[in-house]
Inverse folding.
């Protein structure tokens, strides 16, 4: 309001009418300072007792969200204060005004210390998180189920998200280790996306293959397991040959999964074809009565018709049967 109407306050009539409102404005800002201090104290108390975090904007990570919360609380006080400092009036020299300025400085100091604490607690661990987790193998295997999973630590995902939003803020210096990992975040995203697919296909084969089917794919699955040993033991996220290895392994696993799924689909198709034969009986009783004799007058035509239907269906089944497992060729 002061910014909008400040230029016209020099007019005598307006100035006289506005004179008694200066103390009211000071009082309102003082109440705003008190409310901000209550918000800050409640949040700090909550963090100390239950490790709650400040209210975060949707999709913001923990550190960037906490700093954003502090910045918004700061801006809530800074904008009005910037206008107050331009007021030339005796009320600004009073004891009440001095108290308000002291409260303001106290809040700015508290928020500044909070921001430093949040940022430094994050940077204290970020180097270890980046160096340790990037040197981990690409995948891990559950010894009980024999299933695999991508070994990209959620802490690394958190670091990438933090750096993204802290870079947008342009207010904090990003640690070198975090900056290095963020510089190749697109590469890491590509690695993860393709490994996720590989893991999904591999685990699907392991979980869905039947006991009678397993011998048909056992040799190729053994080859894939041998290939995966490198990802489980020696390959990590920092090595240059990772992408070539991921592509090769992905294609190998996808080939097996496609053929296993195609065979299962063919079996289901065969079942559906054969189910058609049992939907309608070859001979029915007269007038559909249980105590009536079978209607055999047109049995020759019915037999011929059913035989032709089975012949056509049999050709479809033979075609599907020919599409069999090939363990050493990518052919369906």
């Amino acid at each position: 309001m002061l910014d909008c109407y400040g230029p016209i306050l020099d007019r005598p009539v307006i100035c006289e009418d506005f004179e008694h409102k200066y103390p009211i404005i000071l009082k309102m800002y003082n109440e705003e300072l008190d409310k901000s201090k209550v918000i800050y104290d409640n949040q700090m108390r909550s963090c100390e007792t239950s490790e709650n975090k400040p209210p975060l904007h949707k999709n913001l990570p923990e550190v960037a969200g906490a700093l954003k919360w502090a910045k918004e609380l700061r801006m809530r006080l800074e904008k009005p204060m910037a206008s107050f400092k331009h007021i030339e009036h005796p009320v600004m020299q009073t004891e009440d005004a001095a108290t308000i300025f002291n409260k303001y400085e106290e809040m700015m100091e508290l928020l500044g210390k909070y921001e430093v604490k949040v940022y430094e607690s994050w940077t204290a661990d970020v180097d270890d998180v980046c160096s340790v987790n990037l040197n981990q193998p690409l995948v891990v295997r559950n010894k009980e189920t024999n299933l695999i999973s991508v070994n990209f630590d959620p802490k690394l995902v958190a670091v990438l998200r933090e750096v993204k939003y802290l870079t947008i803020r342009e207010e904090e210096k990003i640690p070198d280790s975090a900056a290095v990992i963020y510089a190749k975040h697109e590469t890491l995203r590509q690695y993860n996306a393709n490994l996720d697919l590989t893991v999904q296909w591999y685990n699907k084969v392991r979980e869905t293959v039947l006991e009678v089917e397993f011998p048909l794919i056992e040799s190729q699955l053994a080859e894939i397991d041998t290939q995966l040993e490198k990802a489980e033991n020696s390959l990590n996220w920092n090595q240059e040959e990772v992408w070539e290895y991921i592509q090769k392994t992905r294609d190998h696993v996808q080939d097996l999964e496609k053929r296993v799924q195609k065979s299962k689909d063919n079996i289901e198709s065969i079942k559906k074809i054969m189910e058609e034969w049992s939907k309608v009986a070859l001979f029915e009783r007269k007038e559909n009565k249980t105590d009536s004799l079978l209607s055999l007058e047109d049995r020759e035509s019915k037999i011929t018709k059913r035989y032709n239907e089975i012949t056509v269906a049999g050709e479809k089944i033979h075609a599907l049967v020919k599409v069999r497992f090939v363990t050493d060729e990518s052919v369906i």
In short: The chain has a mean pLDDT of 82. The first helix runs from residue 2 to 5.
